[in-house]
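Second attempt. The first submission of Putative sporulation hydrolase CotR had a stray character pasted in from the spreadsheet, which I only caught after the job came back as garbage. Lesson logged: always re-copy from the clean sequence file. Corrected sequence (352 aa) follows.
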Amino acid sequence: MVFKLVSCDGGGIRGYLTCLILQGLHEETGCLDTADGFAGTSTGGLMAVALADGRTQGKDMAKLIADLAAHYRDDADTIFRENERNFLDKALDDLLRRFHLGGGPGITASQYNATGLEEIGLSLVEDRTIGSLSTDMVLAVNTTCLHRSDKIGWAPFTITNQNLEHESWLDMSAVRLLDVALASSAAPSYFPPHQIKAGGKDYGYFADGGTFANNPVMNGINVAIATNRAHGLEDVEALSIGTGQQPTDISEEMVKNPDDWGLLKWFGITSNAPRGALIELLLNTSAENQYWMARLVLKDRLVRINPPLPKVVGLATHKPESYTLMDKAYQASKQSTYWANAVKMMRGWARN
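This time the job returned cleanly.
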C-alpha cells in the first residue's frame, strides 16, 4: 500500500496561496479525502491540524479548505493582532513605520500577540486533543522545543498523533490541537513563544518549526516510516506545497560593507534589505533544502507546487495587492507541469 502524504510549508499570510492550491487540487482529485497523512510547519501546521481533525470528524473537506482560505483572506487583522507593548517599543515601532519599515518582526517585543490566531484555531478544532484524532490519519507538525531538558537544551520536535517512542514526555495525547498549531506558528519576533501544558505536564515553551524545517515533508516521511505506516521510501508518495517563491535577496550593492552587518542590517532596519530579511532567509532556504533532500530519496514520487510570486509578500502583509499577487500565482500554477504531475499522482491515490 502506498502512504499518501500532503505536506504544507510555513509562510504566514501566504498560507492563503497554499489553501488555493489545495482547494484546486481537491476539486480535481479529491486528494484531501484520500491522503493518509498531513504534515505542516507554522501556517502549514495550522492547516495540517485542521485537515487531520476534519478527516477524523467526517467534515466536508472541500468546505473546510474553502473556510481556511476565507480565514486567511477575511480575518488577517484578527490573526495578526498587534501586541500591546511598552512605551519604548511602541515609540520605536512608530518611528520605523514613518520610514516605511513597519509590518515586520518586533524589535523589543513580539510584533503580534497570539490571541487572534487562537480565536481562529478554536473556531476550527475547538478544544479537541491530539488523542481525539484517528490513528489511521497521520499528523506531523514541526515546532522547536526551547528547553527539552538540562542535558539536551533546545531541540527540533515533530508533534504527532502516532506512537513513536515509549517515553512519557512524548505522550502528548492530552495536548490540544490548538496548542500544536500555536506552538508551530510561534515565529520568533513575530509571535510570542507558546507554552504547552496538558494532562498535568508542563512541556515548556515552543517556537516556530520553521527554525529548522519550514518544509515538513521529510518529517512527515520520517513519521510514516517510523510507525510502519510505510515500510520504506518506496511506499511513500508526497505532495509538497509551498507558499510561493519570493523574489527576495540581498544584493552586492545592499551589502556594501560586510563588516557592518549586525542584527539591525539583517532585519532591514539600517539597510536596504527587506524588513525581516534574516527570518525570511532562514525560512525560505530551509524549505528548499528540505525539498531537495526529499526529492533525492523519493524521486518522481514527490511533487512540489511552489509558484513564483512577482513581488514580495511578507509573512504578515495582508494588503489587497498581496491577495491579488497570490491569486495570480495560483492561476499560473494550474498551467504548470507540476500541477499536471500532481493531478496524475493524486488521481492514483483514490485507487490505492
